[in-house]
Amino acid sequence: MASPNPVACAYNGLITCLAVISGFIFGLMAFFIGADVFMRNVMGSGMPWVIEATEYAMYVATVFAAPWVLREGSHVSVDVLTSMLPQRCTRYVVLLASLLGSVICLIVFYYSAIATINAFERSSMVYKSFTIPEWWVNIFVPFGMALMTIEFLLLFWSRLVLPSTTRSGNQA
C-alpha cells in the first residue's frame, strides 16, 4: 500500500527511479562492450574509452541499485545462523544487523563526503581515458551511503513495528 505522505512517495519514487536508471546503465554497458568487441574483431580497432566508461558505469549503476535491492530483500543473504535460531532470536539478530548496517553506511557516508569535499576544494583531477574532476567520481559514494543508511533504518523500523514481515511484504 502506498504511503499518503508526499515525502515518502517522493523518496520511494527516487529509489525506484535510481533502480530503473541502473538497469538502463547495465543495458548500455552490454551494448557498448558488445559493439567494442565487434569493432575490434571486424574492423581491427575498437573504442578505447569503453573499458573506462564501463568501470564508471558499473560503479554508478551499483550505487544506484543498492538501496532498491536492500529494500526488496534481493541482496545476498547468508542465513545459516538465523535459520537455526528460534524466530524471536532471529528477530533480534535482524534488528541488530539493520542497526549495524545503518551505522556502517553512516560512517562511510561521513568519510566519503569529506573525501569528496576535499577533492572539490583541491580541484583534483582523474587522468585516464577521460580527464574529469575527482569529485565527479567520488560524489556517488556519499549519495549512495546516505540512501543505504535510510534504507537500513527503514528496515530496522519495519522489523521493529511489524516483526513478521519485511518492508516489501515478504514473510521473515
Question: What does this molecule look like?
Answer:
By secondary structure, the chain is mostly helical. The protein folds into two domains: 1-76; 77-172, no CATH class. Helices cover 75% and strands 3% of the residues. The protein contains six helices and two strands. A two-stranded antiparallel sheet has the order 1-2. Helix 1 (6-43) packs antiparallel against helix 2 (50-72), helix 2 packs parallel to helix 6 (140-161) and helix 4 (87-122) packs antiparallel against helix 6. The two termini are 18 Å apart. Mean pLDDT is 89; it is low at 168-172.
In short:
The protein has helices at residues 6-43, 50-72, 80-84, 87-122, 134-138, 140-161, and strands spanning 125-127, 131-133.
* Helix-strand sequence: HHHHEEHH
Number of helices: 6
Task: Provide the domain count.
Answer: 2
Which stretches are low in confidence, meaning pLDDT under 50 for 5 or more residues running?
168-172
Any descriptors?
single chain, 172 residues, mainly alpha, 2 domains, two-stranded antiparallel ribbon, 75% helix, disordered C terminus
How would the blueprint of this fold be written?
Elements: H1 6-43, H2 50-72, H3 80-84, H4 87-122, E1 125-127, E2 131-133, H5 134-138, H6 140-161
Antiparallel strand pairs: 1-2
